[in-house]
């Protein structure tokens, strides 16, 4: 038996408060996504960027996904979740905030990170036949500079490029802090059951080689801790030829921002992965009428296949 597990960013399905979008465009967007879901034909799909939970039913009508979990609202209006052909159990948020205080012994530099993240990770158990998997669904903050006292609103000009650098530093701190908390959440699952099957998947808004992804994946050799080898996470996308390994196109450059990372206990079942990116539009075109004739998402879904 084969099982297909996927992740898919729906690109702002719905309308934000105060935002105006034509009903005909929303319908075209939904129907374009439905076409991708039919082609994907996955047994469970982790999704990101759902703005209105009421739109989940018309999106999935007739597609055979009776089991659904949607994350609770946090600071961000963007919701994550999972829909599945098989039961989903025990949903809960993890990696929702950080409380870390460290001092570098060499220089005396102090680092303190404390507070919530705008998009907590959704932890849910996927009870597929013969292959129960702990899913941790990710939608990390983008790399857009954070708001700071020097720039509090979108669209305001920056006073200096140094201010921009400071705002980028804040963004990176938040992303790295959530990576640490996500890694700790995975460690807790594997500490409770070393044989647990784990998949961390979603839109990471980052490359596999980034420091944030390195934290989540783990590297026992690099930290000279061979006893932690079995707790590493493995990227399913490495089974895809490099030329086909991208889930977004930005200004003409293919990028792999969506990932499925699996535990070593799940590796014996893994048989391959694919990105449905053949007809992907450039993200720079935007999702609105007049900017793009394609009402679908600017992310391509990534699907991994497992044998039971």
Description:
The chain has 308 residues and is α+β, with helices and mostly antiparallel strands. It is built from 4 helices and 16 strands. A 6-stranded mixed sheet has the order 3-4-2-1-16-15, covered by helices on one side. It has a 6-stranded mixed sheet with strand order 5-8-9-10-14-11, with helices on one face. The protein is globular, with a radius of gyration of 20 Å. It starts with a strand and ends with a strand.
- The secondary-structure element order is EHEHEEEEEEEHEHEEEEEE
Strand count: 16
Neighbour order of strands in the largest sheet: 3-4-2-1-16-15
N-to-C CA distance:
5 Å
Which spans of ≥5 residues are poorly predicted at pLDDT below 50? none
Quick one: overall form? globular
Radius of gyration: 20 Å
Write the topology of this structure.
Blueprint: E1 2-13, H1 23-40, E2 44-50, H2 56-60, E3 67-70, E4 79-84, E5 88-94, E6 97-103, E7 110-116, E8 121-128, E9 131-139, H3 161-192, E10 198-203, H4 211-217, E11 233-235, E12 248-250, E13 253-255, E14 258-263, E15 270-275, E16 302-307
Parallel strand pairs: 1-2, 9-10
Antiparallel strand pairs: 1-16, 2-4, 3-4, 5-8, 6-7, 8-9, 10-14, 11-14, 12-13, 15-16
Helix pairs in contact: 3-4
